Amino acid sequence: MQSKKWKFGIGVGIIFAVVAWEAVSGFQESKTYYVTVNELTEGQKLRRHVRVGGLVAEGSIAHRGGKLSFRLAQDANSLPVTYVGSDTLPDTFKDGAQAIVDGDYLAGGEFRAEKVQAKCASKYQAAPGSTTSKSPVAALRGSR
Question: Which domains does the chain have, with CATH numbers?
Fold first, then answer.
């Protein structure tokens, strides 16, 4: 009888260890930390596979023969980015948009992007000067 309890306890321990290992592994893979343009340019060293976040510099977006180039800016620093990929760029990718690029920082100070993500921070904010006190649901019901 004592032997069966030990076997059951060992089995439960193994199952618990596997579940804990999977949880920790999944958490590590889902982290999405990125560096800023200032952090990357101040370090001035090559980095393999890094994410960088910044603002798309005004007037810097250029499409040339299947290649997209633009500059990510933060304060006075900017980073030239080249993207050659088949993924469609998001509609929010435009001048002044916040963007996160995923790729490699090369020796010449250029960033070779594998993925480009963009968002427009003002897209979901209330319009300036709006004084609506209703909730969005109440506003929709009132417009019927």
Answer: 35-119 (2.40.50.140)
